[in-house]
Sequence to fold (229 residues):
Amino acid sequence: TQLLEQSPQFLSIQEGENLTVYCNSSSVFSSLQWYRQEPGEGPVLLVTVVTGGEVKKLKRLTFQFGDARKDSSLHITAAQPGDTGLYLCASVGGPSNFGNEKLTFGTGTRLTIIP
Amino acid sequence: NAGVTQTPKFQVLKTGQSMTLQCAQDMNHEYMSWYRQDPGMGLRLIHYSVGAGITDQGEVPNGYNVSRSTTEDFPLRLLSAAPSQTSVYFCASSYSISGFYGYTFGSGTRLTVV
Fold:
């Protein structure tokens, strides 16, 4: 089973600041997804990254996949209170199971944006 | 546009009782999964299905059964509830586009076993 480490575990910053959270593994990802989860709700898919070095933007959120496909980062510019939530990374399948339907989740980064 | 519907939202069971958590999706997704979420441990896969009639075990399957008789429904059965099964349970469904999957999660069932 692929282990995903997310850091930091908790992050609390002021509105308007920038932040980056990380997702790391000792194994190569076939592809990686980022989710955001709000209290009392299920995770919501934000993005899927597939290619090493890939960068995807979703408004103020920038997702980067490491060149070696063993790490990923999520950068938020000018954070807003609506960005508050639990951010989870998840690997899809494993290095030898491309197309596998199982997700392996990291333990998440709990982000709080203070107005 | 119901998406993935889970019932009930909350449940309290006594140790040894059995129950079924319901999950239904209306998106004609092939894949359905059950996860449990515990503090500090993220989401862990219990069972999953790649289509009607086909199921397989995930990371933490002990104490749970599943079946998939239709594309739409994927119930999770707790055979004999234990306090260790106190958790929030999420059902998810997914599709593939050129080999990559998009997952839609339900809003969860919060289960307490006393």
User: Anything to note?
Assistant: Residues 95-99 of chain A have pLDDT under 50 and may be disordered. Chain A touches chain B at residues 1, 31, 33, 35, 40-45, 48, 50, 88, 90, 92, 98-99, 101-108 (CB under 8 Å). The two ends of chain A are 39 Å apart (CA to CA).
